[in-house]
Design brief:
Elements lengths: L4 E4 L4 H10 L3 H11 L8 H8 L8 E3 H11 L3 H4 E2 L11
Helix pairs in contact: 2-3, 2-4
């Protein structure tokens, strides 16, 4: 099973709290992801805004890579800010 998308917890509240604790704005968090990304690309400020935002423009889902970079910068376990997938019942072992 390949996990490619994760859902943010509680409409992004834990993420916003972790950002506040770390003293990072959206643009600062985005810039810091470039430091922990082996490719140096990081994520954009727009992506951080979408994932951490509220209201109609907020996004509930992000890529695993994005979640990992954010959690790494914030030094928070990924499962605290993103819902981890549960065991799938789609496949049956034979």
């Amino acid at each position: 099973m390949t996990i490619t998308k994760l859902h943010r917890r509680d409409a992004g509240r834990p993420l916003r709290e972790a950002m506040r604790t770390a003293g990072l704005s959206g643009p600062a968090l985005a810039a810091a992801t470039r430091q922990v990304d082996a490719s140096g690309r990081g994520i954009s400020p727009a992506t951080v805004g979408k994932i951490s935002g509220r209201g109609g423009s907020a996004g509930e889902v992000c890529r695993l890579r994005t979640a990992w970079l954010i959690a790494e910068v914030l030094d928070v376990p990924m499962h605290r800010i993103f819902a981890m997938p549960t065991v799938s019942t789609d496949t049956v072992e034979r």
